[in-house]
Write a structure and sequence with these properties.
It is a single chain. This protein has 90 residues and is mainly alpha-helical. The chain has one domain (3-83). The chain has four helices and two strands; from the N terminus they run βααβαα. The chain is globular and about 40 Å long.
Length: 90
């Protein structure tokens, strides 16, 4: 087992959830969604944790709201980039 098996980037979950919200009825391929996931994550900082309780304890509500707003913007921009559309996520 690698040490990396015990560390997780909190933004990954947030981006996956937002990507699902924005593409719920779009019918995009898994390849396009994976590209959008990578593009969005590359726009965001890393925020690693070991246990979910760590994030719940140390993350303030204001910080969480700021993070989710950044994620929404990053996913919208990523989808626009990979689809060539300016109206994705609007």
């Amino acid at each position: 087992m690698s040490l990396l098996d015990n560390a997780y980037n909190y933004y990954e979950r947030l981006v996956l959830e937002e990507l699902a919200r924005q593409t719920e009825e779009a019918g995009y391929s898994e390849d396009l969604l994976t590209d959008a996931l990578c593009v969005a994550l590359n726009q965001l900082p890393c925020r690693y944790f070991r246990h979910g309780v760590d994030m719940a304890f140390y993350l303030s509500n204001d910080e969480y709201l700021m993070m989710t707003a950044k994620v929404k913007e990053a996913v919208t921009q990523a989808l626009s980039r990979v689809t060539g559309s300016e109206t994705v996520g609007a």
